[in-house]
Amino acid sequence: MPPAGESTVRYERRGRVLVVRIEREAKRNAVDRVTAHGIDEALNLLDDDDELWVGVITGTTTVFSAGTDLKDGSGRTERGGEYGIIRRRRAKPLIAAVEGPAFGGGFEIALACDLVVAARTARFGLPESRRGVVASSGALFRAMRALPLNVARELLITGAELDADRGYQIGFVNRVTEPGEALAAALELAADICASSPVSVAASLAALAAQHDAADEAGWAETAVAVERVTASDDIREGVSAFFEKRPPRWTGH
After folding, report:
1. Can 228 be counted among the known catalytic residues?
2. Which of 12, 82, 108, 222 is catalytic?
């Protein structure tokens, strides 16, 4: 566990709803090990407390999350996997409330949620191919479930971005709000969910998740193959070096 007093994640109860905030704005809410453990701690509470029925995860007013901290890494947690959330088996719905960029692992956090509320400032992207790596936290199979296949392909191989309105048009985003209002709208959506039977909600989510179990296993296996392939390449070293040196990468294709 991270040392006490270093948490970059805050969480609070709003009745039956747990609000989880990633607060590392100076690093664009990139997830390091401390942050991953903070998310894990909050979502463990959501999972284990019978008085909590719905979760909302959000960032700050300017950025949702830039994904993995490339300098410090993000690590995994026992119950949640990457970022404390990506491989978590949840029985309760989780809503992503997105303001500003949700890039790389930040997008993958949103893909791991059940519903997405996005302000018009929100942008979703998977820039890993521009770094010589691959999206390793679920996007290689979750993106094509949540998005039309050709849109998912474009995001994965070009570094293109998806804005909130386009995300709503294609069915990925559930609600679009004005800037600064994503959390409020997510709480309204959470209240709608709380008007339903928690047993019925949990049973419905479990039934949906069970239908993806075999596909998830295959997806993680193929993700591991892709990660192994790029890890053995020269491009991954060049991509990371170019990122830190703030210059265009010089790809070799090897």
Report:
1. no
2. 108
